Amino acid sequence: MLSRTADNLYWLARYIERAEDVARLLDVGLRMASLSLESIADSSEWHSTVVAAGCQQSFYAKHKEPTAQAVIDHMTRDPDNPSSILSCLEKARRNARTDRTGITTDMWEAVNSAWIESHALRDGDFALENVRKFLEWVKDRSLRFGGAAAGTMLRNDAYWFIRLGTALERSDNTARILDVKYHVLLPGHEFVGGTRDYYQWTSILRSVSAQRAYHWVYRDRLKPWLVADLLILRPEMPRSLVACFNDITRHLDLLAEAYGARGECHRIAGQIHSRLRYGKIEEIFQRGLHEALTEFIDQNIVLSGEITKQYLS
Question: In the 3-class helix/strand/coil scheme, how is 36-103 assigned residue by residue?
């Protein structure tokens, strides 16, 4: 496969996944901001959402305060934010159109119909009181694309690049959603295990569709270290970091076998996977959850660069 084609497929998957993950991150912010009447006016939840999304530079270049509506507009439809949801859908459609023959008809229809429908949206659809419906629409369209890929693509290098892009983007955003909680959201005086703490963790679980999964796995009341364990170390959970790296290492191995060469990306992915596979949540909390997640995000960025060097340039 030409590196240009591989690059288009890889980033098509990443943009679709990023649109969904930004929607989930905004959902966390909306749920946490609605925990109490006082917190709706508090900007800390919205600042943390901007930080977790990695778009604080572009946001604060245009806005002085992280109000709810300003953050929603920036992360959903601001053309100056390359990671806004509508920007991601635009770029995903462009990549899909460029390599129309590399994807199936069902995949193209999923991407193209989402792009067409996004152009019919109006200002009111992004208002604070209506935006949840839009976020659910984004998640639905992303799931439609993923289902089309899983159900209609040949299991060859095109499929492996799609899955690689999806898993890498998903792992990055799961780490960012978790990092919202303990880095900037929980005030220093807040009692860990208190009522507000409980509902914040519940909001995170609901936003990654993992609340029922949590109770199936642990059969226990909600505990912060078990939520982190589920989203970092449990392979049963498809959005966990270790589950994502199960996919990443598997598809990198398939590409290495098909192309007859391994590179630095395989070594880095193996190292990250090993730490996750044999890690313990107690050790992560002792070291610091924020520190561990920040290091993971930084390593993901390095891995992405090495994948580009090996296959996409």
Answer: CHHHHCCCHHHHHHHHHHCCHHHHHCCCCCCCHHHHHHHHHCCCCCCCCHHHHHHHHHHHHHHCHHHC
